[in-house]
Amino acid sequence: MRLPVFLELIEVQSLTASILPVILGSFYSYFRYGLIDWKNFIIFLIASVLFHMAVNVHDNLQDYLNADKSETFRTKTNVVGVNKLDTKLVLTINIILFLISTVLGIILVINTGWPLLALGVFSFLIGYFYASGPYPINRTPFAEPVSGFTMGFIIFLIAVYVNTYHSYSLSWQFVWPIFISSGLTMFAISNMLLANTICDEQEDIELERKTLVYFIGKPAALKLLAFSYITGFAFLIVAVILNFMPASLLLTLLIIPLVYRNTKFIFHNQNKRTAFPRIAQNLGVIMIAQVLSFAIGLLFN
User: How far is residue 168's CA from residue 170's CA, in Å, rounded to a whole number?
Assistant: First the structure.
């Protein structure tokens, strides 16, 4: 398999959605508790990226196998069919990535304790059933909130926990500030999935996917997209006001004009090739802006 095809198979452009929440969670841990466990941080960062790669490979393979009623999707859209990949090879890559990430996860559980096992099992089940099982999540209206919650909040939470496990437990008092602080990330990730289903509305109908857009319609989905960004930025402001994150995070608000322009574009143009990259750009800019502004806050804290 050629490297460009492999990078397409693992959807390399999406991996920032697992890398940056780990960094943000670790920044949060240092800001709130003055704690960083570098060994656990590095292990979790690698495990998170490998698991995300495994989920992407799994999703692409399952989408190919489940699209038996749409040869056009198989041969023109799906990376497995377009590149005529051997499904056994794709499955082998998938298993290897899952196994390595699982081994790293077990090491983290040994290092930190059983609460991480519960969070890890939850994440694994979401990753597996996102595209598998009798009712894959990506064929339901729950794909967007589930993805945002798991990648935006759970990854952030685990990142904080692996740095603070020896001093703090997963109590409500520990968890709810993390939920608020990860709000913008949650909504930005969820919106990327929502934009995808908005652009793929017709294709999803052909593939018998009953997505959120299928139930509420494209106009309502577009309004939800905009409202989610507003809510995400509101979460960020609340987190700063409550001193869960440094005031420097307010610098993230400077990117609102760009987010607004990209969101306005998809309101008028839902073409996958031109509109979806705008929302993907929103996610990248939102994540990078938070990381950089958080880093500034830590430097001057």
Answer: 7
